[in-house]
Specification:
96 residues; mainly alpha; 3 helices; transmembrane; membrane; transmembrane helix
Length: 96
């Protein structure tokens, strides 16, 4: 199997998980749930910036759909960053 097919399989799996996780649990953010259960959620500070606050895409009424959209955006942003880094490393190896 080619290298690009593995990338596409990984992207598809990540998008599938981002789609299913909000439907599988009412608390898809495990760290926040643990903080809530252990009683120290109130001590958390605000993030220095928020692109999609509370993992909910703004302007979408359905909370599950808004969470899925936020997850897809997160997956695509991280996938793009990792892909560019991997591409740069591979290009550097070919030239040296």
């Amino acid at each position: 199997m080619s290298f690009k097919k593995w990338w596409l399989i990984g992207l598809g799996a990540a998008l599938l998980l981002a789609t299913l996780s909000p439907l599988a649990s009412g608390s898809p953010d495990g760290l926040e749930r643990v903080a809530e259960d252990k009683g120290f959620l109130e001590t958390a500070g605000d993030a220095p910036f928020q692109i999609i606050a509370d993992y909910v895409f703004p302007g979408v009424e359905n909370e599950a759909l808004a969470t899925i959209l936020a997850g897809w955006i997160g997956v695509l942003v991280m996938f793009g960053a990792v892909y560019v880094i991997a591409w740069a490393i591979m290009k550097n190896r070919k030239t040296t």
